[in-house]
Each structure stands twice: as C-alpha cells, then as structure tokens.
Amino acid sequence: MDTTDSAVKPARSKPIPKRDVLPYILLSILLAGLLAVLGGALFPPYYQAVPALLWSLGFCVSGMLLGFLFGIPRTVPSGTVDVPAATEVPPNASNTLFTGTPSPMEINSNLVEVSDWLTKIIIGVGLIELKSLPGTAHGVADFIAPSLHIDLPTAQAIIGGVMLFFSVHGFLIGYLLTRIYLSIIIKRADSLVKNDSVRLDSGKEIEVSELSRLQQKSLEDLQEAVTGLLLARTPDDGPPAVAALTGLPAEQKPANRVLWLDDHPRNNTLLVEQMARENIKVDLAQSLAQAQALLQKTPYALLITDMARLEGGRRVKDAGVQTVREVRQAKPELPIIVYCSKDTVASYGQAAEAAGARFITASGTSLLAAVRKLVEEH
After folding, report:
1. Which among 91, 123, 175, 219 is least surrounded, fewest beta carbons within 10 Å?
2. Do the Cβ atoms of 217 and 339 come closer than 8 Å?
3. Domain span holding position 227
4. 279 CB contacts (<8 Å, ≥6 apart)?
5. CB 115 within 8 A of CB 72
6. Helix crossing, 269-277 with 364-377: angle to 10°?
7. What's the pLDDT band for 226 if we cut at 50, 70, 90?
C-alpha cells in the first residue's frame, strides 16, 4: 500500500514550508551598507570608491570568519551514550523480526575542537586587551584613512563607521548562518555516515526510522485487532480464533508461495518478513501486468493486492477491483485478498467482493491470519 492507501490512520498533509527570509534580510542590510559607502564616493566628501569598498568587504569577511568560529555547533562527544549489553539479540531468539542493532561510526569533530580552542583564545585575549581596543581601532583608522584621498579627520570618521558597521554585521552573518544552516548540513552528513539500519532475518536491511514507522503501524493495528477480538469474543468462538492465529512451527510447515501486488512494497516489509518466518515465500509485483506474468510462470497459493495503485503512469483508485476481476477470469481457483485502507474498504469493498475477492481487510493482523488459513487450505 502507498502512503495514501495505508491500513492505518491517513497521514496528515504536510504544511507548506515557509520561505526562510533571514538570509535575504542579512543580504539586504549588507547591500544597504555597500550602497552607503558607494554614495560617499559619488557625493560629498567624494572619497575613493575602490579602497572604501575593498576595506568594507574586508571588515565584513573578517567579521564573518569570527562569527563562523563562534557559531560552529557542538556535537555530543563519542562514547557518552552507553548501550547496555542486554539489548543484544540472543542467537536463538524467535520472537524478533530483526537481528542486530545500529552501530554508529564516530564522526570527525576536528573542526568543532579547533573552533572551541580558537574561540576561547580570542575571548581570553580580548578580555585582557580590552583597555587597548579603542587605541587599536584608532590606529587602524589612521592606517587606512590616507587611501581615501580626502582630509584626514573626515577619512578617520568614515573608516571608523565602516569598521564598526561591517565588522558587526559580518559577525552576525557568520554566526547566524553557521548556527542555523551548518547544524542542518552536519546532521545530514552524519546521518549518511552513520549506520542507521538493521538487518532483518531474511538478510534485507532497513533504516531505523523506516522500521520505527512500520512497527508503529503494526502496534496500532495489533491493539485495534486485540480490542475487537476481546469485545466480540464469546466462550463458543474462542478456540477457532486461537486456531486461526496459531499453527505448527515454521520449520514443520510446507513451503508456499504468495504473490503480493503493491506499487509501494516497502510499506509491507514487516508483514512480508513475518510471512517468511512462517515459511511463506512472498514474490512482489508493482503492476498488474507484472503480476499476470508471474502468475503464468509460478503456481501461487494466493494473491494479495492493494486497491489504489499507479497503472500505466496514472493513479487508479479501484485498481484492486480490476485486478480481482481479471485474475479471477484467468485463474478462478486462486484466492485473492485485498489489503487496503479503511476508507478504501468502505468505498470499494463491496465491488471487490462482487468481483470475487475472498477477503478484504485494512488490518495487518487480520491479513496474516487470513493468509495462514488460506495457505493451510491450499
């Protein structure tokens, strides 16, 4: 099933991301400062434009570099998270779907360490030399003023303003952009380097985030199925319900093949894994044509199909009904299960039953029980 044809609650629509205006604001302020500097060259006091612009950009870049050093995000030191030995999966465990745990690699943090070291030195030296800071700034202004080719007092005042404005604004640019965007870049890079995946019993690897999402769906489905079973259970129907959910050990069961038609097979990974543990081999198809080709080559115990699906480049909401109808014409003896969302069951459930579907469900737990029953009958 795809994300819009899920067996659990439909996903909420994602809000449209707002455009980040911070870089534009900082750039606008910088351009305004450069235009002010350029205006002093075009209008009184008519100083030299090129030296003024070069020194302005130089102070801005120096401030950006300092802001970059101060804004580099700190990372959690390696080894601060201890994984208890109890989390290791025993080799003979049979009630787990996957073996192994993520083993993240240590990320190189030399840049963070250098930044921390330089930041402390700059702060320490700055506090010690704080009294001499005005004299140093005045000396820098005296050094730069002659390049403007105007009277010295005016040139010193202009250089002082340039120094203050572009240094402070450059620091804000470097600090804010580094603090916000470098954190995102580092996090993405770390996620690519780290091994955030686990290996299933079948040998397939799945990301931890995807595994968590699928397990959450399974838990919600299981809770709903158990609640319905407890509410509907009577003393007379207890044993059949238990018998439908239990069976022989997997190694004692005959091997069976099931064909699952779904254009988003990744959403069914855990269900397919559970069937494999029951000695049920699942072949995957993502289109009706592909499924029909497999049905001609291989005898299957049953067919599982979704409802809404991409066929021929367009989305067909009742593709499951068409699949049931066409497969029943070619193989009338083949049981067909429709696995789709609750809304889709309400919309197309009767049509699928009329077309010849043996079972229609939005529950993964009910699906597994129906598969076991039909496989045993086969």
Report:
1. 91
2. no
3. 207-377
4. 250, 251, 253, 254, 255, 256
5. yes
6. 40
7. low
Question: Among candidates 349, 134, 372, 136, which has minimal Cα distance to 254?
Answer: 372
Q: Please tell me the predicted confidence (pLDDT) of residue 78.
A: 45
Residue 10 maps to a domain = no
Which pTM does this prediction carry? 0.47
260, containing H or E segment: strand 256-261
In a domain, 5, yes or no: no
Please indicate, yes or no, if residue 13 is contained in any of the structural domains: no
Q: Give every CB contact of residue 39 below 8 A, 6+ residues apart in sequence.
A: none
Tens of pLDDT along 85-141? 433 444 444 444 444 444 444 455 677 778 788 888 888 888 888 888 889 999 999
Are 150 and 284 in the same domain?
no
Number of neighbours of residue 86 by Cβ within 10 angstroms: 5
Both 52 and 190 in one domain: the answer is yes
Number of domains in the chain: 2
Q: What angle do CA 218, 8, 267 make, to 5 degrees?
A: 65
Asked if the model's pLDDT at residue 246 lies above 90, the reply is no
Band of residue 79 on the pLDDT scale cut at 50, 70, 90: very low
Report the alpha-carbon distance of residue 1 to residue 345 in Å, rounded: 13
Is residue 259 within 8 Å of residue 294, measured between CB atoms?
A: yes
- The answer to whether 302 and 374 are in contact (CB under 8 A) is yes
Residue 213 vs residues 33, 178, 206, 339: alpha-carbon distances, Å = 50, 32, 11, 18
Element (H, E) at 302: strand 302-305
pLDDT digits (tens, 9 = 90+) for 321-342: 999 999 999 999 999 999 999 8
Q: Is 211 inside a domain boundary?
A: yes
